Amino acid sequence: MLKSDHSGKKSSWMSILSILAAFSLIGCAAAPSSPSVKNTPPPVQEPVQMSAQLIIKFTHALTTDQAPKKLAQLSRQYMVDFQVVREMSGGAFVIKVHNIAGERHLSALLESLKQRGDVAYVERDSMMQHHVMQPNGNVIK
What we know:
The protein is an alpha+beta fold. The chain has three helices and six strands, in the order αβαββαβββ.
């Protein structure tokens, strides 16, 4: 009799363990698979490359032939591409700047150029908007 009691307890435990194992397997199968964060590399964000047009005047007047050499020197120093668009009256140049990594980079570049001793002024080239003032004080845009 002892043997049968002992085997009965053993079979009860085996039944309980079987049921628990079945439930755990069902739970694993029903759980949605989630992608492993470790195996997925983060998306690479390319820096925004932009161009801008500036007006720059150097403290020492440059000729049309000298300006590209000066801008090539600045291109190497600032790691952007400066190109002369045209010379303006008064010795200033309209230049195009390529390979700028966004607005912050452009702002920092402008501030750095303004601090140089060989730059009289530099500013972003923009369309001027003319306004007409009427005799009654109203502005026509």
